[in-house]
């Protein structure tokens, strides 16, 4: 399953009076000039819970799960509103891993296998998100995202300390300590923040009428662009997700230098390399890039499946074969010889930058998707979850 999931000027009030009295010169934070002053409500007694009215696009800052989760999320929302003048909200989601669920793998009729979680548990996770953003084209999105990634709120520092319920806080701290990447070291406890959709809005809200001209522009000249796939359907075998919005000039630099790349750059590079490796051994592979992720697909088909008299649809056998061939393979669990687990298949590629693996993984579950067409008027969702 997927896990749950994000401007400051000189401080006024007593802090400003103290500065004037002492004559001290305090350096403004790096984001001081990014966001103009605006009044953001920050009532400690109010519940700033996310609603569908808080914009279609949000920044996912971080999430909490544990004894102090609710209070810590509330405190962070207030601090982001009071100190950083950002419209922050909380969003609660319940995860129940105690029952069986639809797992990895399908039969020929497209029915999921039933599986049980290895470590069954049930808990609430509370996300802190920042809105209102009506469009990804708004330059304030990137400015706010950069500020959030480098901010050091008291709520995520000494205020809670070892009692913090922030998800994966310890792992992120260790990684920032041992990594040699200076960009990662400079980020704060919300360094993994990313732009996402408002989870309370239906998918139909984000469906565009035909393909976005920007997506056409960055995909049309690729040697094996999915836009050139002649069929109506294909099988998505790999998805590589980024965390930042994509710019046209960034896309042009994807493979030009061996350098530290953004996540969206890495996603596009992996997709391009995987597609090229598959093509090199005669596989009909295609690649497609959008603002938040890149995908690789295999095959070209006119029919997704054949309807049956019992109401089910039997998946096209050729598509099902691809799903089986590139899906995970069963393997022995190292710590329990009597148990079997699933291991992702990989493809060896060449020409990856230093520090990046040349083994590119396929998805845990390849799945049929609709081929995007420049001429279609039907809505096409870039994340392509039509058959989920």
Share of residues in strands? 25-35%
Count of helices? 9
Estimate the mean pLDDT confidence.
77
Strands across the major sheet, in which order? 2-5-1-6
Distance between the termini: 13 Å
Largest sheet: 4 strands, antiparallel
What class, by secondary structure content?
A: alpha+beta
Summed up, the domain count is 2
Low-confidence stretches: 1-37, 244-248, 254-259, 375-388
Rg calculated over all Cα atoms: 23 Å
H/E element order: HEHEEEEHHHEEHEHHEEEEHEEEEEE
Q: How many DSSP-defined strands?
A: 18
Describe the structure.
This protein is an alpha+beta fold and 388 residues long. It has two domains: 42-197, no CATH class; 208-380, no CATH class. The protein has helices spanning 14-22, 69-82, 139-150, 169-178, 182-186, 213-219, 248-251, 263-280, 317-326, and strands at residues 57-64, 87-96, 100-106, 112-116, 122-133, 194-197, 208-209, 233-241, 285-289, 293-301, 305-307, 313-315, 329-333, 336-343, 346-348, 359-361, 367-370, 379-380. The strands form seven sheets. A four-stranded antiparallel sheet has the order 2-5-1-6, with helices on one face. A four-stranded antiparallel sheet has the order 9-10-8-17, sandwiched between helices. Strand 11 (305-307) and strand 12 (313-315) form a beta hairpin.
């Amino acid at each position: 399953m997927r896990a749950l999931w994000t401007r400051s000027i000189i401080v006024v009030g007593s802090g400003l009076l103290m500065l004037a009295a002492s004559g001290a010169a305090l350096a403004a934070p790096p984001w001081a000039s990014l966001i103009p002053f605006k009044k953001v409500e920050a009532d400690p007694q109010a519940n700033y819970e996310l609603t569908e009215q808080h914009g279609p696009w949000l920044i996912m800052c971080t999430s909490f799960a544990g004894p102090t989760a609710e209070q810590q999320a509330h405190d962070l929302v207030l601090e982001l509103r009071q100190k950083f003048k950002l419209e922050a909200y909380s969003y609660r989601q319940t995860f129940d891993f105690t029952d069986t669920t639809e797992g990895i793998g399908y039969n020929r009729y497209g029915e999921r296998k039933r599986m049980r979680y290895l470590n069954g548990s049930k808990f609430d996770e509370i996300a802190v998100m920042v809105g209102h953003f009506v469009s990804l084209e708004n330059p304030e999105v990137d400015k706010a995202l950069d500020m959030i990634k480098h901010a050091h709120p008291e709520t995520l520092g000494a205020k809670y300390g070892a009692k913090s319920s922030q998800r994966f806080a310890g792992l992120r701290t260790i990684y920032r300590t041992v990594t040699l990447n200076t960009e990662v070291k400079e980020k704060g406890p919300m360094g993994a923040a990313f732009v996402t959709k408002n989870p309370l809005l239906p998918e139909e809200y984000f469906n565009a009428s035909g393909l976005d001209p920007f997506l056409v522009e960055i995909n049309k000249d690729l040697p094996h662009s999915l836009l050139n796939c002649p069929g109506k359907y294909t099988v998505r075998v790999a998805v590589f997700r980024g965390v930042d919005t994509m710019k046209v000039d960034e896309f042009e630099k994807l493979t030009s230098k061996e350098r530290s790349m953004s996540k969206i750059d890495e996603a596009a590079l992996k997709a391009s390399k995987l597609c090229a490796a598959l093509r090199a051994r005669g596989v009909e592979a295609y690649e497609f890039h959008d603002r938040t992720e890149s995908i690789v697909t295999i095959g070209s088909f006119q029919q997704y499946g054949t309807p049956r008299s019992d109401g089910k649809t039997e998946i096209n056998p050729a598509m099902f074969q691809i799903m089986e061939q590139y899906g995970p393979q069963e393997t022995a669990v190292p710590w329990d010889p009597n148990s079997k687990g699933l291991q992702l298949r990989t493809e060896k590629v060449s020409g990856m930058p230093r520090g990046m693996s040349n083994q590119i993984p396929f998805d845990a579950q390849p799945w049929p998707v609709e081929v995007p067409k420049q001429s279609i008027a039907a809505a096409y969702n870039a994340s392509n979850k039509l058959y989920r």
